[in-house]
Design goal:
Length: 122
Amino acid sequence: MDQKQFETLVMRAMENLPEVFKESLENVDVVIEDEPTLEQSKSIDTSHRKLVLGLYQGVPLVKRSHYYGMVMPDKISIFKKNIEKICKTDEDVVRIVTHTVQHELAHHLGISDKRLKDLGIY
C-alpha cells in the first residue's frame, strides 16, 4: 500500500473516533513511521509481541496535574511496515490501522494494556 493510501486510513480512523475522544486529542501528534527507531525500540516492552504496530509517547491525561503545560505534543506513532507485515489483505490493513489508532489513544487516555485486556478489547 502506498504512503498516501496509508495516511488516508489513519486519518479515517481518527475521524471515526467518537467526539468525546476527539476532544481529548488536543496537543497530540499522530505520525506514520515505517518502523520504530532505535530509541523507540528501547522504550518498548516487546516480551508479548515481536512487531510493534504503534506507540504512544507522552503523559497520559489521567497523570496530568494543573501544573501541566508548555510541553511538546504527545506523539502517537503508527508503524506502517510492521502493520503491512502482519496483514494479508487491504481489509486487514484497514482493521489493524483502526485498532492500532484506538489502542494508542487508549494509552493517551491512561488505559493500560492490562486494563484493555480486562475489558475484552484484546
